Amino acid sequence: MALIIMLSRRQVVCILIICCSVFHNTYGRSDPSFRVKAVNLGGWLLTEGWIKPSLFDGIVNRDFMDGAGLQFKSVTVGKYLSAELGGGNIIVANRTSASGWETFAVWRINETSYQLRVFNKQFVGVDTDANNVVSATTVVPGDSQTFQIVRNSDDANRVKIKAPNGFFLQVRREEIVTADYDGESGWGDSNPSVFVVNSIRGGQGEFQVTNGYGPRAAQVMKEHWTTFITEEDFKFISENGLNAVRIPVGWWIASDPTPPKPYIGGSLAALDNAFMWAKKYRLLVIVDLHAAPGSQNGNEHSASRDGSLEWGKTESTIQQTLDVIDFLSARYAKDPSFYAIELLNEPTAPGVSLDTVTKYYRDGHQVVRKHSSTTFVIMCNRLSADNTELLSLGSSLDRVVIDVHYYNLYADYFDRMTVQQHIDYVNNNRSAELSTVTTSNGPLTLVGEWVNEWGVSGATKEDYQRFGSAQLALYGRATFGWAYWTYKNVNQHWSLEWMIKNGYIKI
Ligand SMILES: *[C@@H]1O[C@H](CO)[C@@H](O)[C@H](O)[C@H]1NC(C)=O
Ligand SMILES: *[C@@H]1O[C@H](CO)[C@@H](O)[C@H](O)[C@H]1NC(C)=O
Ligand SMILES: *[C@@H]1O[C@H](CO)[C@@H](O)[C@H](O)[C@H]1NC(C)=O
């Protein structure tokens, strides 16, 4: 106070400007040496079962969620149901082992009723005009493709499958499966309508959790959104050397509060809260469209229903995605924390072509620019594609960031590496990789996902610290910055909160 009194009015203005620019620098808009040091808020507004498995605990018939693969072994003939030729044909029961044609993907209607999708993507139905023969010929399922799966209360793996005509499926002979059994003769090995079911776990994402809970989903999700990440977490993040959060969201957030079924309204209000807390604790926000309509990679984290990748195969999925970008950019354009928007996380080659993603990114950039001239536009490299393939596009547009994800996982050679080999890999191979995508006049680079985890068993805390330091040193060279995957996770090393609290990582 005393100091200011002695200054002229012009000097006061100067000091204010300096203060403002310091504030701005910590907010990252103007200083070219500024780097994002972010953490992903994975599993919050977009469910990933492995991050918080307990979210699924209350689901009835959890092994029959959307995308689970069911295999049915007839107790009378001892062989598996199979979609002959993979689909478009009859269902038979003559396979001694189960693989693709013998696996039926669940589309869940509710906790008792299901549709079953075969290898070539048709649905199982009953031909009531032809002796109730069971076949898989319909591409768009309806009531005639909806079956009730009835479990034996003494042995949950024994099931009967009730067809829409009111009768149970039965195996008459290995080549003849019909829906005409009245089902009143117990659960023994001589009952041709009894099957032993084996469920192969599918993705556990937003579609599975919301559709799995059905009418209870709204309550469960709202509870999750308000407890999994809170204001305290933003405080912790800001106090531990980080300056930003990357927040994965799903496309349905744009139709909040009434998104299409089975999605639940309310994630938008949670994102609004995130912006409010970000402002309070001086954090930047990267909004990351992690799940696009139809799914851009078939994984649970893009909310695929059954592992299929449909994004980009029709113009409408792309237009719908641009509308989501439009909505999010418009909503947050004036918010001082809104630093960047990622147009699409991890589209996967070859399911998503380079042409499709390039055109979408170009259009998406334009959509963002309608609302903001400063927001960075992040373009994620396609998985399993050349990491330089977006460089020319990125160079032709302003304030573009290329996102690359670096995990020392998901390949056999990583599983065989020692601690030192992992560290060398980061220092040499990753370093070379990052250099090829970080060009002087090209787009900025973001290591938008990495984790201090590996396949080394018995690694010590010091090993983790060395690995973490090597990764931090390298990713600090990315010209936009980096983001750890993820903030909270039941798997300790995948939780940056846990890693910081336990001294495994220091930012
Ligand atoms: C489940 O769906 C089926 C088919 O639409 C319907 O007949 C049945 O009443 C539903 N059951 C429950 C518990 O909602
Ligand atoms: C199963 O039955 C179908 C239909 O009769 C037949 O085409 C197929 O060859 C049989 N497969 C085996 C393994 O017996
Ligand atoms: C890492 O780089 C070295 C040196 O270029 C190379 O010999 C090695 O094969 C690379 N490792 C992997 C797993 O690609």
UniProtKB/TrEMBL annotation:
Biological classification of the source: Eukaryota, Viridiplantae, Streptophyta, Embryophyta, Tracheophyta
GO biological process: actin filament bundle assembly; cell migration; establishment or maintenance of cell polarity; polysaccharide catabolic process
InterPro entries: Actin-crosslinking (IPR008999), DUF7910 (IPR057232), Fascin (IPR010431), GH (IPR017853), Glyco_hydro_5 (IPR001547)
Residues of the DUF7910 domain: 61-198
Protein name: Uncharacterized protein
Annotated keywords: Glycosidase, Hydrolase
Domain Glycoside hydrolase family: 221-489
UniProt similarity note: Belongs to the glycosyl hydrolase 5 (cellulase A) family.
Gene Ontology cellular-component annotations: actin cytoskeleton; cytoplasm
One matching Pfam family: Cellulase
